[in-house]
Amino acid sequence: xxxxxxxxxxxxxxxxxxxxxxxxxxxxxxxxxxxxxxxxxxxxxxxxxxxxxxxxxxxxxxxxxxxxxxxxxxxxxxxxxxxxxxxxxxxxxxxxxxxxxxxxxxxxxxxxxxxxxxxxxxxxxxxxxxxxxxxxxxxxxxxxxxxxxxxxxxxxxxxxxxxxxxxxxxxxxxxxxxxxxxxxxxxxxxxxxxxxxxxxxxxxxxxxxxxxxxxxxxxxxxxxxxxxxxxxxxxxxxxxxxxxxxxxxxxxxxxxxxxxxxxxxxxxxxxxxxxxxxxxxxxxxxxxxxxxxxxxxxxxxx
Length: 302
Known about the structure:
four-stranded antiparallel β-sheet
């Protein structure tokens, strides 16, 4: 397998506010979808009871899309795949590095476990587990890796899936379009999008961070990392109907941690462009049309 250095935490490289100079996109972005979609379409690969993901192997539902890798160093990692010859971006990992030859096993009891090389059921040596073991017999356990970048485990506990990494790929065009039930789609922590040149990730540390694909370096962030005052300690991102893109806390505070300051332009949308810029446009604006209301100012950093 390819050798890839894994950072032990996706931490922000900047804590300060960022450039917000508005600049036009040089060309129409390939990420400029004609419609906003809540989720991407997907394929998946599964591990049934008794199946293992051996050291040095990976699950790849669709070539060129995210991969689940059981690294030879013992770390189980989800990567967003970068450009050829460039770094991939770790979206989630088990934190079990340093255990060479470790493997992952889907157990009959519903638990998905990373074991040391010589470990296993009845032997010990468990390094990480999904915690989905239980006594239900009306469900067939399996681990599923979906190519939108999420690992799900259906165990023998309540809930379907019983456990997931919550690392779902979202469309690069972020709109306020409501679902049929009137709910405006949001990004939860772990959600991410990509263009030809950058990734945008709402991290588990509550920071919204842009990474360039050229070298995996962070080039912009919202400065929202750190504990949240909400009940679950997390935040979410949402494009408001008013045109304001914001990162805010959940119940009971709903405190805005960061926002684009573009309220007053109803049904505006945000676009993660191939030129590396995150831009909020008026409803009828866009690359080659004008109407930019706010931008990350990262078009010259890719």
